[in-house]
Amino acid sequence: MTSLSTIASHFIGETGRNNPLHPEDHIIPGSPNLSHAVAGRRVNASFVMLARNSDVDGAVRSVRALEDRFNNRYGYPYVFLNEVPFTEDFKR
Fold it and tell me: Is the pTM of this model over 0.70?
């Protein structure tokens, strides 16, 4: 069995800075907003949300918050998971 630390060491070196997609390694000098200054790189990713049909209001608030603060610039897709089929109300 492989430990998580062994797996992680393949992605992050001892200093934590060897990952080629580490944002601090790609900061554009002089950028007015360093938190958004990743030099043209975007990792393959998506947001995964576990939600029940009854969680529709909270799910909408969470997605809106993510869109307002981050995802409106990057357009990552969302994946919603539920233990039963989603209702039409949830899908809207």
Answer: no
